[in-house]
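Exercise 7.
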Amino acid sequence: MNRVVRFHETGGPEVLHLEEVPLPEPGPGEVLIRTRALGLNRAESMFRLGQYGIDPVFPSGIGYEAAGVVEALGDGVSGLRVGDAVSLVPSFAMTDYAVHGEAVLAPAHAVVTHPERLSFEEAASVWMQFMTAYGGLVDLAGVRPGDTVLISAASSSVGLAAIQVAHKAGARAVALTRTSAKRQRLLDAGADEVIATAEEDVPARVRELTDGQGARVIFDAVGGTALADLVTAAAPDAHLVLYGLLDRAPAPLNVGEVLFKHLTIRGFELFEITTDDRRRAEAVAFVTDGLAKGELTPTVDRTFPLEDIAEAHRYLEAGGQVGKIVVTVPTS
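Solution. The predicted structure, written as tokens, is:
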């Protein structure tokens, strides 16, 4: 038998349970992976709560990210071998493939062999955040040397990845965080500057840091009431990429600033990149190159054993982490 994480109704972390199900067999184009580590994301929390873009079908599995070892290959799968250490690029719906469990199926296009220097915990912390950061900053905003990039929710796994992606592209990374409590940890993580949004005047600090020009790229996971300050902090012709909705309050918008600054405000989902074969390949190549050169390094905040999956979700929702929350899977 095989233990997987499932839930039978939407709700808080307490609805998650480990359940025994038969070991699956890979069909055509599928890979069976014996997992060693599972990456936890805000997307899983929203899915569990019934607040995601797709609704769970009960009993529902959960999970976008995992790392482990290939156990079996379905017909037509090439480029992989049994025993390969692999991790998963989120490029499928959780209603089709849910990968938080001991042995899971994944579509072959989502399975990537990662650099040997990465632990399984680190490998489970790569693809959601670095692909999201690449997609928003490089693919959409075209970040370039000399740019100032504002990164909200900077202590999240995606925020930390965005700092590194901005640097790889030659830009300056300015981390936005609610209070100064995480300032030093963000500086240690590579941020060039840190702005505490609840304690400082964001537009004024950005003007100070950019000689009055503003930020050409803004990468925002928050939305809500703080969006007004980001628009004011933007440079003429800036790109403001919205990839999250941590604040669901209505967002005030100074249309005059958008109009006369010629701003581009763009909503972005990771799956725009990962479900397009060409863009996914380009993104994987960028991230793999960065991992190999040490320019991109995942940050693991804390690990939980599989038996404590509900507690891991509680910790995620408390919002105190700096980096990725990982669930470890026993090998026996």
